[in-house]
Structures are given as C-alpha cells and as structure tokens.
Amino acid sequence: MASEKNIFALSDFFSSLFHNFPKLLFTNVLFAVPFAVFFGIFWFINTASSINSNFILFLTAIPLFPFYAGVTQVTSHMARGEKDVKVFQTFINGVKENFLRFLLYGFIFYAAIFFSYYSIIMYSGFGRYNNAFYVLLVLCVIISVFFLFVFYYVPPMSVTFDLSVKNILKNSALMTFGEIKSNFIATFGLFVLFLVCATVLFCCKYAAAIIIATVVLALFFVPSLMSFIINSSIYKAMYSMITGKDEKSTEIDKKIKNRKKGQFYDNFEDKKNSVAESFAGLKVDESKDGDEYIFYNGRMIKRSVLIKLKKESEEKKENE
Predict the structure, then answer these.
(1) Is the predicted pLDDT of residue 259 greater than 50, yes or no?
(2) What pTM, to 2 d.p., does this model score?
(3) Which of 35, 186, 236, 291 is the most buried (most CB within 10 A)?
C-alpha cells in the first residue's frame, strides 16, 4: 500500500512538473534579472578589490532573497495543485508582500552559508594533520544539514501563513526533525537535479561552453526547479502541521475565553452535557403538573423539562 502511494505521489509530481514547466521557465526569467544584477555587482566588487573571496560573492544572497519569495509563491501554488497559476502577478505579489521579511532571511541565509562553507573547508584541511578535527568536521556537516532543512520550510511557510518570524523559524526548526522523511525526499530530489546539471556541464568540452551552460542553468532552470522540488516534497506535511496546530491553538484560546466568562462549555454538545450533568441528584416532585414553571438556577424552567433533564443525567451516569 505504501509503495502504491509513493508511485502515485511520484506520478503526480512529474505530471505537475510537465504541466507547469513553461511557467517554471517564465518564473526563472523573472528571477534571472535581479540574480544577474546583484551577482554582477558583487562579482565586480570582488574582482575590483582583488580580494577574490567567495564570502563576497555569497553576499548576493542577501538582496536576492526577497525575489526568491516570488519564486516560492509561484511554486507553492503549484504544489497545492492549482492548474492556472498567473506567474507574473503571483511572483510580483510574493516579492511585494514578503520583501522585508525575506531580506532578513537573506542575512540569516548568508550567515548559514558562511558558517557551513568555511567551517567545512577549515576542518577538512586541519583533519589532514590531526584526525580529531574530523569529529568537528562531522559536527559542522550535521549543523549545515540542519540549516538546509530549516530553509526548506522558511520560504514556503512565510508566503503561505501569517506567522511571526519567530514562529516561522521555530516551526521550521521543529520540522527538520518531525518531518525527516519529507526532508530526505526533498534532498534526494535536489541531488537528482544536481546530477542532471553536472551531466550537462560534463558534456561540454570547451571552457566557454561550460561557462555558458552554467549561466543558462543558474538563471533559467535551477532556481524554480529547486523550489518546485522542495515545495512538492514538504508542502503537504507543512500545511497539515501548521493548520492543525492553529486549530488546536484556536480551540484552547476559545476555552480560556469561555472560562473567563464563567462559561464551562465550548460547543453545543458540551453545553448539552454540562446542563444535563447539573441536574444530577435534583429533587423534583414528578406527581405535580408538568407545565408548571419552577425557578431553578436563575431561570424559570418547566417541571417536565427538569424531570427529563434529571432522567438524562442519571442515565448518563449509569452508562459511565
């Protein structure tokens, strides 16, 4: 049964991918403009300053991340199964509505890349002279994978739910452990994408062809495909987790509010049960007129109604 579900999920993924492929390409075109501009700026700074260090090129992620909100907005709609996604309008709305929040994520993402890249490079180098550093290398790899999994959830959660940054980061961190299967599926999908890109570059025989192929893949294929793979892998689990949590939170808030009002029931069924239980042990003369009103608990209630509620309460207690 599980294998059949996996087959159906995989077929749905490829069906959605082929159906939305032209729109994914258009999304990449929209993303390619800021990508080229910001990367060009930091490449020029890196070259002109003669520093020639990756940490300057990594700075591209900070101003570029708000535009990734547009990519995520488009692919999250596709992951929900929407057929007619208006790419341009959805992309622009995603950028406008999430600009400042994703700019903050850009700084966090840059810090994560900086830590992961240089820690792994440093400890792998030290490990050649002292094997003890390989322990720190493994720890850095684990932390880097944790960062990776967190950023699977941060963008789609931000464009889908109206949550604070604190709650988005907290929920994303929790889902790195709670949805480990979805995380590995997304990682496997990205690995396949990497293999496809590597194969294309491997087939290029000349340096100029490799540069052109890299630019084309980076600008027009990889960003939206990467986001589509991630969203298709984790979106359902993320949506179920957040909506379920919100429903539970809303239910708890409702109960607290009702208790403050002195109301000890939260829905009609609870009210019915609460009222029935309040008549347990009530002494009512059943021989008198049932239509006679009796003042009970601040209300005028017919004797016949009180008798009925009393019997229901007693029957309920007996069944329990």
Answers:
(1) no
(2) 0.71
(3) 186
